[in-house]
């Protein structure tokens, strides 16, 4: 599973499955798998739980969900 993300590396090094790790941090295995693959980020609480469970080997900032900024549309012209 190691694809270079800190969480994927940690899971491989500690020989843990996403299911095992997810049970320890209170998350579903698919959520942990997607975070480890870099497909999504973790919420703030989950990111802190991951950092705590890994004893700092994976930092919360490594897995934290980033906010996407929405593009602002140009205002519509008003009808006269």
A few lines on this structure:
The protein is mainly alpha-helical. The chain contains 5 helices and no strands.
Protein architecture, described:
This protein has 80 residues and is mostly helical. It has a single domain (6-63), classed as 434 Repressor (Amino-terminal Domain). The chain is 49% helix and 0% strand. It has five helices and no strands. Helix 1 packs across helix 3 (29-37) and helix 2 (18-25) crosses helix 3 (29-37). The longest helix is centred in the middle third of the chain and has 10 residues, at 44-53.
SSE layout:
Blueprint: H1 6-13, H2 18-25, H3 29-37, H4 44-53, H5 60-63
Helix pairs in contact: 1-3, 2-3
Per DSSP, the total helix count is 5
Structural class by secondary-structure content: mainly alpha
The SSE order reads HHHHH
| Global outline | elongated
Q: Looking at CATH, which topology would you report?
A: 434 Repressor (Amino-terminal Domain)
Number of strands: 0
Nearest-angstrom radius of gyration? 17 Å
* Distance N to C terminus: 60 Å
In the CATH hierarchy, the architecture is Orthogonal Bundle
Strand content: under 5%
Biggest sheet, open or closed, and with what strands and sense?
Answer: none
Indicate the low-confidence ranges by residue numbers. none
Q: CATH class, please?
A: Mainly Alpha
CATH superfamily: lambda repressor-like DNA-binding domains
| Average pLDDT, all residues | 89
Number of domains: 1
Helix content: 40-55%
């Amino acid at each position: 599973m190691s694809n270079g993300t800190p969480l994927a590396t940690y899971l491989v090094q500690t020989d843990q499955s996403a299911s095992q790790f997810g049970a320890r941090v209170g998350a579903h295995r698919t959520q942990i798998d997607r975070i480890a693959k870099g497909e999504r980020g973790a919420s703030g609480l989950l990111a802190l739980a991951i950092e705590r469970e890994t004893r700092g080997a994976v930092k919360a900032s490594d897995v934290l969900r980033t906010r996407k900024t929405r593009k602002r549309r140009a205002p519509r012209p008003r009808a006269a």
